[in-house]
Design brief:
- By secondary structure, the chain is an alpha/beta fold.
- Strand 2 and strand 3 form a beta hairpin.
- Helix 2 runs parallel beside helix 3.
- The longest helix is centred in the last third of the chain and has 22 residues.
- It is globular.
Length: 184
């Protein structure tokens, strides 16, 4: 009523642009193992109060949404891409037909070319993280479920407890995300 009488202008919540609406559900998937998507994310790890950043390189299967390969290294580089890709092959038993990565130079090196072999490398559209929605979504879930990684190495017993706690908490929070067939 106030808006109709020009007494108040309602604040509009930002929605999807027409481009985003048009592209919604346009990522075509074929079968598990056909296409993987890879990307890196910087993580913060605190050891004895000192902050360290580590790169988590993740490879996700687009059809099953399974996280098939990971690598944790000091930086996002070609070695991380190769390690995550190789870890994915170890997990699934096969290389995919295609791997989608962004245009970061570390994703397009001779080392990555050699590791991919017959796998086709696809480049994501610059400036459109939606192209890698499968891996970006997994990073979002990771951020929601994994507690801060804080380790105190001065007491080995406390360090062991903390590591066990972080692993158990992460595992069981991740289990909560998995639906149970017997309960629909």
């Amino acid at each position: 009523i106030l808006e109709a009488h020009c007494e108040r202008r309602a604040a509009r919540r930002g929605g999807r642009s027409r481009d985003e609406e048009a592209l919604r559900d346009s990522f075509e998937t074929f079968f598990p193992g056909a296409q993987w998507v890879g990307d890196g994310k910087m993580l913060e790890v605190f050891v004895d109060g000192e902050r360290f950043t580590q790169n988590l390189e993740l490879v996700v299967d687009t059809k099953s949404d399974a996280s098939v390969g990971i690598s944790v290294r000091a930086e996002e580089d070609s070695a991380a891409v190769v390690e995550a890709f190789d870890n994915g092959k170890e997990t699934t038993g096969n290389a995919p037909l295609a791997l989608l990565v962004d245009n970061r130079p570390s994703n397009h090196t001779p080392d990555v070319d050699a590791a991919l072999g017959e796998t086709m490398r696809m480049r994501a559209t610059p400036g459109r993280p939606q192209n890698k929605a499968h891996v970006e979504g997994q990073f979002g879930l990771f951020a929601q479920r994994v507690p801060p990684i804080e380790l105190d190495t001065r007491d080995p017993r406390e360090l062991a407890r903390t590591v066990a706690f972080l692993i158990a908490l992460t595992f069981f929070r991740a289990q909560n995300h998995a639906p149970r067939r017997d309960r629909n």
